[in-house]
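Example record used in the benchmark description.
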Amino acid sequence: MNDFVSGFWPIWISAITLGGIAFCVGLLIFASRVKVPLDSDNTNGHEWDGIKEMNNPMPMWWVGLFIITVIFGLTYLYLFPGLGEYQGKFGWTKVNQYEADVAKYKAKIAPLYAKYAAIPVPELAKVPEAHAIGKRIFLNNCAACHGSDAKGSRGFPNLTDSDWLHGGSPEKIIETINNGRMGMMPPMAAAVGGEEDVKNVANYVLSLSGSIHDSGRANAGKEKFVVCAACHGAEGKGNQAIGAPNLTDNIWLHGQGEAAIIKRVHEGKINQMPAWKEKFSPEQIHLLTAYVWSLSNK
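Model output (structure tokens):
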């Protein structure tokens, strides 16, 4: 068993914690029992440049601070977690604290979003205040991948055009934001054939979008494209039901050109967008959907 998940560490931490408190108590007891002989000059024998070090007891205010420290420490350890696996009387955890803060925040801002909940997305996209709120949600959470202008980058879709892997209707956008998406293309080189066949298929794919290609290889690759047609369709126009890209529109999510397509045929690709339904309320997702929808529906 890994030492860091064994039962030793909770015991060790508890021993150090209680040991520190016991040390404070022991120091107080020791200091209270030190007696100075009546015939003594109340010094400890240390002298430097005519200055003698006195052997006076600790001031009472200092003793009081030690006592308060001990009481506070024991009270805290009883009420809150601090002794190994003991959860404390209140059962406090940072997860519970976080969830309580989030719930409090959502309750506070709920009225702000509620007034827009019943407005259909196409109409809501025209409301300046709602558009501004949706934009702020996007910039704070989605821009890290899709960019502040929502035009994406390699591997992250452009949300301002009409090319949608899973559909660009309000319902589909809500579904995507809520549940996320998992896109997967398996390696297809073995199914296509040898390396020459892969190059031929790559050139045929380029020909579908009118990109620069070798027409001879494209003609030879058309027959082999049949193994790709199961997802992309016989005409290469894709399938939104499974997120298969349209290969005829000259929009390339993971790179353009023969080399990029050959790499994708050999290696396949897995691309994931996380689900957001646990973070956003339905009203927030409604506003975010209106903003995203508006980007490609001017």
